[in-house]
Amino acid sequence: MGVFIVVGLGNFGFNVAKALKERGHQVIAVDRDKAVVQAVKPYAVQAVEGDASDKDIFKALGLEGVDAGIVSLGEKMDASMLVALYLKEMGVRHLIVKAFTEEHARVLKKIGVDEVILPEKDMAYSLAERLTAPSFLGEFHILKGYSILDTKAPKDFWGKSLDKLDLRDKFGVSVILIQRGSAVLAGPCAEDVISEGDILVLLGKDEEIEKFKRFSQGKK
Asked: Which residues have a Cβ under 8 Å from the Cβ of 183 and sit 6 or more positions away?
């Protein structure tokens, strides 16, 4: 079981926190929005409301034993770099930060960030994946050894609930989002039923994602 800190609880950060909790890890969550901090409490051992640029918040948490940090602060580049420095100074072992430009990514690397998520670059790789494997719409790494996969729901899934499909037991992956047309279902529950045309967003270890992809492609 690992310990993770997630700073910034937009759709991405919130669902990463939820999925990590579901996989048995401990999560510390930080955001300035009171409502989202309340919403994340079932998935966090600590949920803190406050401005992430305030170093005292992280000092009070005591982060020496944290295995990894995920920073997703929208387009607040200065804030993300400042938080990255705080977390590194306080002993967080592995740091992943979302960037929005190549320059931002280079600066993050220079200050010691271990992994940088660059959406435009990830989209390019997603397009290449889509062209070579049409049932898969994109894949990118978010944590060391973990990936997110966007995939069309296989025909065998249509009309079945997530509980019945039991993807966590069969493949080790978690469904963190379902896109149905223009609607997005964040944090789907066990009773939610998959429909034809649904796009599933899966989180899992790299080898588990590959296992699911082989299954979807009819390989053993």
From this structure: none
